[in-house]
Specification:
By secondary structure, the protein is mainly α. The chain has two domains: about 60 residues, no CATH class; about 200 residues, no CATH class. The protein contains eleven helices and no strands. Helix 4 packs antiparallel against helix 5, helix 4 runs parallel beside helix 6 and helix 5 runs antiparallel to helix 11.
Length: about 260
């Protein structure tokens, strides 16, 4: 197993590469210089803080603390997904529950089969991967729901006037929104190993693990991500779309709020 030699001086030199992005932003007048600097500083501070926290958690190997960290990850993912909802009601609860279920089902099914062990070194990173992917998928679902309920408002009203239920009247929008949420994961799966070497696989190879073992691990993670985004997208869409209707099943134009 090879040791990675990432020294402080190496990090400083790597930080110099950020100057390239800053120069491009300044030269092209993109107006993202300040956001880029803040983003880099926040990333460094957050990653170091999380790194030392994880080192402590891995060392004590406590089940309760591991579960608490997993719940914190799920809550933060749900909160960030909620911020992309643009006024859809109850999306904090919808996002947290959807991510909790999608992450919980995929992670604990692998624990039950013995593919993963319930130890912080495995549970916390895997939970983060599942929750973040579900968060992105649910955020895309919210955006697509808002867009399609605005663009297809007349069609929905016509279906309602002909006696359709809110589910029947929203079926096309629900189908497209779920598809939109799942699409990035599906696309990345199709190009995996040809265009990209995923982070999990690359990290294991960097650490000196046999590439064949790393591939098997990545395949398992890919299957888990597909399941997580599917569950999260379906739950969020079928729960959130009801927020576009009032108690009398009348369509509300939420996009104007």
């Amino acid at each position: 197993m090879h040791n990675l030699a990432v020294t402080n001086s190496s990090l400083v030199l790597a930080a110099g590469l950020v100057l390239i992005a800053l120069y491009i932003g300044y030269h092209e007048k993109l107006g993202i210089d300040r956001d880029m600097i803040i983003g880099v500083l926040r990333a460094v501070i957050q990653l170091f803080a999380v790194g030392y926290l994880l080192k402590y958690i891995f060392k004590i190997d406590n089940v309760i603390l591991t579960i608490v960290m997993m719940l914190i990850i799920v809550f933060n993912a749900g909160y960030n997904a909620m911020k992309r909802s643009n006024g859809i009601p109850n999306t904090l609860m919808i996002s947290i529950v959807s991510i909790f279920v999608s992450t919980g089902v995929t992670v604990f099914s692998m624990v039950i089969t013995g593919a993963l062990k319930f130890i912080p070194m495995q549970m916390i990173p895997i939970t983060g991967m599942m929750a973040s992917q579900s968060m992105v998928a649910i955020g895309l679902c919210y955006r697509n729901l808002n867009t399609n309920f605005r663009d297809e408002r007349q069609q929905v009203l016509e279906k309602l006037s002909l006696g359709g239920t809110i589910k029947q009247s929203s079926s096309n929008i629900l189908r497209e929104s779920i598809k939109t949420g799942m699409q990035p994961t599906v696309d990345s799966t199709k190009t995996m190993g040809i265009v990209t070497l995923p982070g999990m696989m690359s990290g294991l190879i960097f650490a000196g693990i046999d590439p064949v073992y790393a591939i098997k691990y990545q395949i398992m993670i890919t299957f888990m991500l597909l399941a997580a985004t599917s569950l999260g997208s379906v739950m969020a869409c079928y729960w959130a779309y009801k927020g576009f209707y009032n108690s009398r099943d009348q369509l509300i134009d939420r996009t104007q709020k």
